[in-house]
Amino acid sequence: MALFKRLRDLTMANINALLDKAEDPVKMLDQYLRDMEEDVQDAEIAVAKQIAVEKKLKQQYQEAEELATKREAQALQALEAGNEDLARRALVDKKAVTDKAADFKAQYESAKVTADGLRGKLGEMKDQLSEMKNKRDTLKARAEAAKAQKQINQTLSGIGTDNAAKGFSRMEEKVLQLEAEAEASQEMSGSKSLDREFAELNKKDTSGIDAELEALKARLNK
């Protein structure tokens, strides 16, 4: 059992480590805010429903009280007309309506307390959401600054620029090689030119034209 528990703990630790590494703070903050906004929307719907119940009970309570007042006035009117039976029936209905009014009033007061409590909770949620939005902006700025600082530190320490450094080194070697090849080519070209000049210098007239020309010059001089 201890071995299985140890393996489970190691597995959970590895999973949590992977999750921590994979979580992008900025994206997670946005997701948390979206979740909070959905909660606020659900709360707004619940508050709206409770307010509707409160208003309905208030209306029923007020209508019942108005009807009770009306039945009392009608009973008085019936007595003035000498119709005691009608007055009695009006008072009986008044009592029933008064009982309903009292019941509606109790329900209304209870619904109002609930609605007021939900309004307060909704206000707290909205305040918290607003606070989280402001905090999100601050945390996002801090996260971006930290990423930039990390990238700069890695660049300064050579981490992340190794490929670029190796690339520059290879190109430098190629340039040196090209320069060496150009210098060797120039030396070879100069050597061949010098060889050609000496070849021209040592070239002899194999046709005898030069000798015949010199003989003619000698005859003229005589």
- Structural classification: mainly alpha
What count of helical segments does DSSP give?
A: 5
How many domain units?
2
Q: Give the end-to-end Cα distance, rounded to a whole number of Å.
A: 135 Å
Report the principal-axis shape: rod-shaped
Order of helices and strands: HHHHH
Residue runs with pLDDT of under 50 for 5 or more positions: none
Query: How many beta-strand runs?
Result: 0
Portion in beta strands: under 5%
Task: Explain what you see.
- The chain has two domains: 10-160; 176-221.
- The longest helix has 73 residues, at 84-156.
- The chain has helices at residues 2-22, 25-80, 84-156, 162-202, 209-221.
- By secondary structure, it is mostly helical.
- The chain is rod-shaped, with a radius of gyration of 53 Å.
- It has five helices and no strands.
- Keywords: Coiled coil.
- It comes from Tumebacillus lipolyticus.
- This is PspA/IM30 family protein.
- InterPro entries: PspA_VIPP1.
- Pfam families: PspA_IM30.
Q: Key terms for this structure?
A:
rod-shaped, mainly alpha, 222 residues, coiled coil, PspA_VIPP1, 92% helix, 2 domains, PspA/IM30 family protein
Protein topology:
Blueprint: H1 2-22, H2 25-80, H3 84-156, H4 162-202, H5 209-221
Keywords: Coiled coil
Coiled coil: 26-74, 115-188
Family: Belongs to the PspA/Vipp/IM30 family.
Please outline what is shown here.
The chain is an all-alpha fold and 222 residues long.
